[in-house]
Amino acid sequence: MLPTSDYDPDDTVVVLEDVGVRYRVPRGGVRSIKEYLLLAMRGQIRFDDFWALESVSLKVAAGERLGVIGRNGAGKSTMLQVIAGVLRPTTGSVDVLGRIAPLLQLGAGFDPELSGRENVYLNGTLLGMKRAAIKERFDAIIEFAELEEFVDAPLRTYSTGMAARLGFAIATECQPDVLLLDEVLSVGDEAFQAKCVRRLREFTDRGTTLILVTHDAHLVADNAPVRSGFATNASWPTESQATWSAPTTIS
Ligand SMILES: Nc1ncnc2c1ncn2[C@@H]1O[C@H](COP(=O)(O)OP(=O)(O)OP(=O)(O)O)[C@@H](O)[C@H]1O
Ligand SMILES: [Mg+2]
To answer: What's the total number of domains in the chain?
Structure first.
């Protein structure tokens, strides 16, 4: 039996209406920036339009947990970037209420030359935290990430999983209203994943909205169920669950 999110469907925090994202890809391939600039000056660059998302309409309620799965290239990360506000949709509109903490690509919001400690301040600030608030939570962040020994080493010396731990710890300590996670749990080891999942549960119990993109259907099925009321089982994803967002581009 699934844990169900206790949310009021009228209390929406994320609303996408008819969102489309078009990327423009230079046709034929351009070998260097110099060639690109020359062709651009002569007006000789031709682009192909590529719609990564088309007509996506979606409402996510306060406290809801939403799992998003889909093939490589289906447009999941594009959609999360739109919700995070780092990518403006070509068509349609996006509304997000409250403080949003996006954990998109690994390393986004980090400076590899700065230490773990400095990156906590950098990343926390990007997430809208005040310096005093970061200071207050600093020890808890490092403790959760289990990086006490490495806190003063430059981030470039961290493994992928260590950097992901730090990112997750910061994003969850800043107590956002909406947490976006794009594949970040997959690089953590098993013990850390279990710890993250426990934290995510505490989170949604407090009313935080979670949108989780993953290729791990079990992670979604067990821990971040799609729409409350949907039956989830080992054969997940089913057709009905894939309809959460309606777009054919994310299926
Ligand atoms: N900056 C870009 N310029 C051109 N095309 C892009 C760009 N970013 C993404 N795309 C294209 O948009 C589509 C969706 O990409 P996206 O990264 O959103 O997929 P995804 O569902 O997150 O895939 P994955 O499971 O591999 O992470 C892909 O076909 C990709 O090639
Ligand atoms: Mg992606």
So the answer is: 1
pLDDT in tens, 189-230: 888 888 888 888 888 778 888 888 877 666 665 554 443 322
- The larger pLDDT score, comparing residue 56 to residue 239, is at 56
Closest-lying ligand 1 atom to the alpha carbon of residue 71: 25
pLDDT at 27 over 70: yes
- Specify if 38 maps to a domain: no
> Which residue is closest in CA terms to ligand 1's atom 17?
77
Domain span at residue 140?
12-21+59-245
Atom of ligand 1 nearest to the CA of 24: 4
Q: Which two tokens stand for residue 62?
A: 């306060």
- Ligand closest in space to the Cα of 182: 2
Joined tokens for residue 17: 């209406």
Any residues with Cβ below 6 Å from ligand 1, and which?
23, 25, 50, 52, 70, 72-78
The answer as to whether 17 is a domain residue is yes
Residue 142: per-residue pLDDT: 96
What's the predicted TM-score (pTM) here?
0.80
In-domain check, residue 229: yes
